[in-house]
Amino acid sequence: NRRWLLESRPHGAPTADNFRLDTAEIPTPSDGQVLLRTVFLSLDPYMRGRMSDEPSYSAPVELGDVMVGGTVSRVEASKLDGYEEGDWVLGYSGWQDYALSDGTGLTNLGKNPEQPSWTLGVLGMPGFTAYMGLTDIGQPKEGETLVVAAATGPVGATVGQIGKIKGCRVVGIAGGAEKCRHAVETLGFDACIDHRAEDFAEQLKQACPKGIDVYYENVGGKVFDAVLPLLNTAARVPICGLVAGYNSTGLPDGPDRLPLLMGTMLKKRLRMQGFIINQDYGDRFDEFFNEMSGWVKAGKIHYREQMVDGLEQAPDTLIGLLEGKNFGKVVIRVADD
Ligand code: NDP
C-alpha cells in the first residue's frame, strides 16, 4: 500500500520535500468496514491549505499523516452492509492505494457508473461549488455581465457555462492563449482575457463595456485589482477561492488598498460573500446533481479532465496546479479499474 505522507509544512510554494512516499501493509477490514482500492485521486487547490497549520475551516493534515483527497475507488472486500466487492465508491481515501472505511462520507456509485471520475469534477465537489456559489450568491440575471477567473478549471469552466445558460454575457480570465481559446471556442464564453498580458486590466475593461454585475472570485490578487473598478452598482461577488495567494507568506507590499475596497463596496452597494461548499450547502447536493446531470447529458455543459498516470506524480502535479500548469480538472489515475 503506497501512501504519500505530509513530511513537513511548506513555507511559500510547496516543494517535493514536503511529501514522503511510504509503503505499508494492505489493511484488513473488520466487521462494519470496507477495504477500498483507489482508482482515481482528485487534486484540488484546498490541499495547499491542509498542508498548513494556520487556523482554517477544517483541521490541517498532521505531519506524518496521509495527505487528504477525494477518491473514486473499487470495493476490494466488504464487511459493511450496502457494499459489495467490485462496487465503485466515491469517498475520501486520500493519497494512497488502499484505505479502510466504515461508510462515513462514502457514496456507492454501483457496479457500472458512466464516467466515474467525473464525480470528482463537474458532477461532484467542484461542480457543486460552481453551481451554488453562482446561483445562490451570484444570482445572475439575463443580460448581465459575469466575470470568472481560473476559467478553464473545473469550478470556473462550470460557472461560466451556467452563466451562459442563464443568459449572461460571460467573460473568462485564464493563463495563456490556449486556455483562453478553449474558454471561447469550446466552453462558449463571449470573451476570455489572459491575466498574464501586460495590458490585462485594459483588455478586461474593453471586454466588459457595460461593467461587471457578477464577479465569481476564484483567484484574488492582481485579477481582483483589475475587476474592482469595473463592478457595477449592486454587483454580487461570491468569494469562492483566492488561489493567487495560497502560497503567499504574508500580505503584499504596496499602499493599503483597504479604504479603496471599503469605499467601493459602500458607494456601489456591493454584496461580497464567502462560502465553503459542504459547510454552507451540504444539504443541497441532490438538487445540484439532478440539474447538472441533465445539463451534461444534454451537451449544455462541457467538461475537460486532465488525467495524470501514477500515484507517484501527485506531489509535482499539485505543485503545478497551484501555478496554473493544469488545463482542466486534475485527476491522478492511481490504478487500472
Ligand atoms: P483550477 O483547476 O482552476 O486550478 C487553479 C487555477 O487557478 C490554475 O489552473 C490557474 O489557472 C489559476 N491561478 C493560479 N494562480 C493564479 C494567479 N496568480 N492569478 C490568476 N489565476 C491563477 O481549480 P478549481 O477549479 O478546483 O478551483 C478554483 C477555485 O475554487 C480555487 O480558488 C479553489 O480554492 C476554490 N474552491 C473553493 C471551494 C469552496 O468551498 N469555497 C470549493 C472548491 C474550490 P490559469 O492558468 O487559468 O490562471
TrEMBL record:
SMART domains the UniProt entry points to: PKS_ER (SM00829)
Domain Enoyl reductase (ER): 15-332
Any single Pfam family the record assigns to this protein: ADH_N_2
CDD domains membership: PGDH (cd05288)
Gene Ontology molecular function: oxidoreductase activity, acting on the CH-CH group of donors, NAD or NADP as acceptor
Keywords: Oxidoreductase
InterPro entries membership: ADH-like_C (IPR013149), ADH_N_2 (IPR041694), ER (IPR020843), GroES-like_sf (IPR011032), MDR_fam (IPR045010), NAD(P)-bd_dom_sf (IPR036291)
Protein name, per record: NADP-dependent oxidoreductase
Taxonomic classification: Bacteria, Pseudomonadati, Pseudomonadota, Gammaproteobacteria, Enterobacterales
